[in-house]
Design brief:
Length: 735
């Protein structure tokens, strides 16, 4: 229910003016030009009207008091409508009083406020739509617009009817759902584009991760192999070093004892010739031990070279299997020219010349194939050079091994000769020199043992250095896990060659790990992030699809509800329209009829509005009237009074079906005669039971039906002023 209207600076109301609407029917009267209709336009203005034409202006500045010769102009126009919300006609506002205010400034800007808080026009429209106060203004009939609904086109009539039936709330919800659906569809396309954009990057990262995983698998395999090898090798080196050192100490003591005994015997028997034979045997034995150790070292080096050679041959073989070869265009042209020249020579020649030409062609093709069928890639040349170098190194080491084998055979032969010479010498004085030879032999044996053990210690020292180097290489390739092995307390019962096979296998795995390459952990992290983002986008796409389905379902439900409510409302309006029409005309009938519903691909309506292709157009509303004792083909054939009566009947029918909180009628009774004025007054009394009425009129019959009468006057200063009379109080005063 309306409580009051506050006007300040709007058109002719320069000063703040307050109209109280505490009665169901309020009449506003006054002479022409006093500003009565400005009150109705103030309502339009405050409720968000955007058409300046509807408020009898060309621009927003025309709505502000422009001043007179006695009063200065205003810089701002403001209108506030205050509603009683105790019955919660605005359910979203939890206040007993709701004030909607609009202000306009001379720069053309407008401000809207709700209970003092600034809001948008959209917020005001949605709030009013919930209370059946639509934006078409069907509840405000301005001066001269009584037959506006008759003169409107069918689509405009439908909009007014929907507004009167309170369907704007559903329309707002549907429009909001459609906007959300459009944004959702746009978001779906954007998410799909993002997924397409990151898909190639994910595939690339996946290949990198797979390569990294292969390298990690090889590294784990290498770490496992190394753990076994290192555990055995470390215990072997420690055990062997302790054993050899202990034997070296024992051999040193025995050698010292033998040398002391030999020296004592030499002091007694200075047999220099015998000593020379003994010394010769000792030197021969030492030489044999030295060559044997050198050959053992050479064997290990040959094993390393053979392992590297085997890997290089595999890489070279992979390059040779390449199925394609690049041939320069110039070489093809030269081959063609050679064949053509041989063909030209063979033409018209004897068998010998023909055979020579065929041989020439065969030779040219053979040379071409020989040149280009052999791999010549730089990488192949590099691999073959490596193979060649390693094979040359192996051949050199093999030749050296063969020389050492021959040297060992010679050393053994020399040792045998030295021993034979010593035996021959001993035969001459065996009894005398038996003890000397025994001591010398003991010393030679111990010296050989000491030399052998020293060589073994040097070998173990070299093996320990190589072991440390291998640990460093494996640490770089396989990580610290390769060195995290449990120390053994006992060596496995196996041949030493088994450990050497483990070493060669470990070397091959090292080469494979180096060839596999791999990447860093950043690649895996980036891949996981990319996959996580793709999963997130897939989830988002699924959520958006569900949201779109929900919005489509909501739009469908709203369409069903709109159609149902509109159909029911149209039936009720037609029933009331027929009754009011019959009452106003004393018979006859009238009804609202839907246009034929068509689906068009693309159309412009009368105002140039272009419809979306393929979208169903709402059927408009036509008015069919049947006057008593008169046949009418068109609404244009009605007289001014008949149009006014028909419009009033339709407006009252629409208000009867879904009463708005208030209804403003600006001189809608101007064309009525005395009899129709009484009918009009009766209809006002009946309508006032459902809606609050504000009637602007010169008709005394209409005035008599009001509870409060406002008189609008305008003095010489050009400013509208109010005088008010409450009929109940006036009657009491008159009594």
């Amino acid at each position: 229910m309306l409580k009051r209207l506050e006007i300040a600076g709007f058109k002719s109301f320069a000063r703040k003016t307050v109209l109280d609407f505490s009665n169901q029917t309020t009449a506003i009267v006054g002479p022409n030009g006093s500003g009565k209709s400005n009150v109705a336009e103030a309502f339009r203005f405050a409720l968000g009207e955007q058409s300046m034409k509807s408020m009898r202006g060309k621009r927003s500045e025309d709505l502000i008091f422009s001043g007179t010769h006695m009063s200065a102009r205003a810089n701002r126009a403001a209108v506030a409508i205050v509603f009683d919300n105790t019955k919660r006609i605005f359910p979203k506002i939890d206040f007993d009083e709701v004030a909607i205010e609009r202000a306009v400034f001379r720069d053309g800007t407008s401000e809207y406020s709700l209970n003092g808080s600034k809001v948008r026009l959209r917020d005001i429209q949605e709030l009013l739509a919930g209370a059946n106060i639509g934006e078409t203004g069907h509840h405000i009939i301005s001066q001269g617009e009584a037959d506006r609904i008759l003169l409107a086109n069918p689509r405009e009539r439908r909009a007014m009817l929907e507004d009167a039936l309170g369907l704007k709330g559903f329309e707002f919800r549907k429009q909001e759902a459609e906007r959300k659906l459009e944004r959702t569809d746009a978001n779906v396309k954007e998410v799909e584009a993002l997924r397409r954009e990151i898909a190639p990057h994910i595939r690339f990262l996946k290949k990198q991760v797979e390569r990294l995983e292969r390298a990690e698998e090889l590294a784990r395999e290498l770490a496992t192999a190394c753990q076994t090898y290192f555990a055995i090798e470390e215990l072997y080196l420690d055990t062997e070093s302790v054993r050899v050192k202990r034997e070296r100490e024992v051999a040193g003591e025995k050698l010292a004892h033998a040398e002391a005994g030999l020296k004592a015997f030499e002091d007694r028997n200075n047999d220099s010739e015998g000593l020379k034979h003994v010394e010769k045997v000792r030197l021969a034995e030492r030489e044999l031990d030295r060559i044997s150790q050198e050959r053992a070292q050479l064997s290990r080096e040959i094993g390393r070279v053979e392992g590297a050679l085997d890997s290089a041959k595999r890489r070279s073989h992979a390059v040779k299997e390449e199925p394609y070869v690049k041939i320069p265009r110039q070489d093809l042209t030269q081959l063609q020219a050679s064949i053509e020249r041989a063909g030209d020579i063979a033409e018209g020649s004897d068998h010998e010349a023909l055979r020579g030409a065929l041989e020439a062609i065969k030779g040219a093709i053979g040379a071409f194939l020989l040149r280009f069928t052999a791999p010549a890639d730089e990488y192949l040349i590099e691999e073959e050079n490596i193979v060649y170098t390693l094979e040359a190194e192996r051949e050199a080491l093999t030749a050296k091994d063969q020389k050492l084998a021959d040297a060992i055979a010679d050393a053994r032969a020399a040792l045998e000769r030295a021993r034979q010479d010593r035996l021959a010498y001993d035969e001459t004085g065996r009894e005398q020199q038996h003890r000397l030879l025994a001591v010398a032999d003991s010393r030679a044996t111990e010296e050989a043992n000491v030399a052998r053990l020293d060589a073994r210690l040097n070998e173990l020292s070299y093996l320990a250095e190589e072991f440390s180097r291998e640990r460093g290489e494996v640490l770089a390739l396989a990580g610290s896990s390769a060195l995290s092995y449990e120390k053994l307390t006992e060596l496995p019962k196996e041949d030493r060659r088994t450990q050497e096979e483990r070493k060669r296998g470990m070397e091959r795995l090292k080469i494979r790990v180096e060839e596999a390459g791999g990447g860093t952990e950043d690649v895996k992290k980036e891949y996981e992030e990319a996959v996580g983002r793709e999963t997130f986008l897939a989830r988002e796409l699924d959520d958006l699809a569900k949201s779109a389905d929900g919005l489509r379902s909501l739009i469908s439900d709203l369409d069903i509800e709109l159609h149902k409510t509109f159909s029911e409302g149209l039936t009720k309006v037609n029933s009331s329209f027929g009754e009011f029409f019959s009452l106003m005309f004393g018979g006859g009938g009238a009804k609202l009829v839907l246009e034929e519903l068509t689906v068009i691909a693309e159309e412009e309506d009368e105002e140039g509005e272009q419809l979306e292709p393929g979208k169903p157009r709402k059927a408009g509303i036509e008015i069919s009237v049947n006057l008593p004792k008169k046949r009418v083909q068109s609404l244009m054939q009605l007289s001014g009074g008949e149009r006014a009566l028909t419009s009033i009947a339709l407006i009252f029918a629409m208000s009867q079906v879904n009463p708005p909180p208030f209804l403003i009628l600006d001189e809608t009774d101007a064309a009525l005669d005395e009899a129709n004025s009484r009918r009009y007054g009766d209809m006002i009394d009946n309508l006032a039971k459902k809606s609050q009425l504000i009637v602007i009129s010169h008709n005394r019959e209409t005035m008599s039906r009001a509870g409060i009468l406002y008189g609008v006057t305008m003095g010489s200063d050009g400013i509208s002023k109010l005088l008010s009379v409450r009929f109940e109080e006036a009657v009491q005063v008159a009594k």
